[in-house]
């Protein structure tokens, strides 16, 4: 079967939209109506008039789309596609922290489960984390940033202000080694080093640009440079090469591949759209609390 063709037909027939993250496989990126980073995909989920959202990404992303659109059908082609960082914080552990620190505001990275979001004051993504953290600190609040230690430490370094940080991370970004990156820089002296803020601080400190997947893509489009060492998941390089076919993109390490993001195939997308299976449901009470924290993010990132 020509899955791509059938997906296009079904999309029209069912008034469905396909949202895909930049870490998805090339063939999924090619059939998506919109590609984006976590923030853009959340905003698109709010803006769309489609009745069905097929979310090609990982579980927390589809769950976020459902929380923001309770009346729409949100489908995740592969239910077991999770996020290793989201698994590094449990609602019980966060509850314990909150009991011990009742005056601390909880700023939670979007890579988290709905139950963790429900215990948070505000959500953020790699695009708006610095703005949101600074908003709370400027108001004199004590904060916990969770679960990504690296983005938290980066925000502390830039702002020169201390706050509590959870010790989670994205293993894919976290295990990139500064020495290997320095060696790559030596080998490619004209290349700019660009990194996702989930990388360790010692890599972010030597980067020419730090940003979300979408911001990294935009940077490579607008930059006068012709060569880039890319410190994020390899899927984004496909989008970069498409946008700037004459530029050279060097993946910082072959280990930069998110297994969960790579699970989705065209056949999975076709099956879930054809049969309307793999629907995401979120407990109503949890969703209502998580939505308050997500809406706060959307309001603060305007
Ligand atoms: P972005 O929001 O930058 O797309 O990041 C999502 C993610 O999971 C990074 O590992
Ligand atoms: Fe989660 Fe890391 Fe995969 Fe992003 S790359 S979805 S943070 S495991």
What is the gist of this entry?
The protein has helices at 3-14, 26-31, 38-47, 59-68, 91-100, 114-118, 129-138, 149-159, 171-174, 178-187, 201-204, 213-222, 235-243, 266-275, 284-300, and strands spanning 16-21, 34-36, 52-56, 73-75, 104-109, 122-124, 142-146, 164-165, 192-195, 209-210, 227-231, 248-251. It is α/β, with parallel strands linked by helices and 302 residues long. The chain is built from 15 helices and twelve strands.
Shape: globular
User: Approximately what portion of the residues adopt beta-strand conformation?
Assistant: 15-25%
Kindly provide the radius of gyration, computed on alpha-carbon positions and rounded to a whole number of angstroms.
19 Å
Question: What's the rounded overall pLDDT mean?
Answer: 97
- Uncertain ranges: none
CATH topology of the largest domain: Rossmann fold
> Considering DSSP H and I runs of 4 or more, what fraction of the residues is helical?
40-55%
CATH top level assignment of the largest domain = Alpha Beta
| The named CATH superfamily of the largest domain | NadA-like
How many beta strands in the DSSP annotation?
12
What structural category do the secondary elements indicate? alpha/beta
* Known CATH architecture of the largest domain: 3-Layer(aba) Sandwich
Number of helical elements: 15
Integer tally of domains: 3
Q: Give the cofactors and ligands.
A: 1,3-dihydroxyacetonephosphate, iron/sulfur cluster
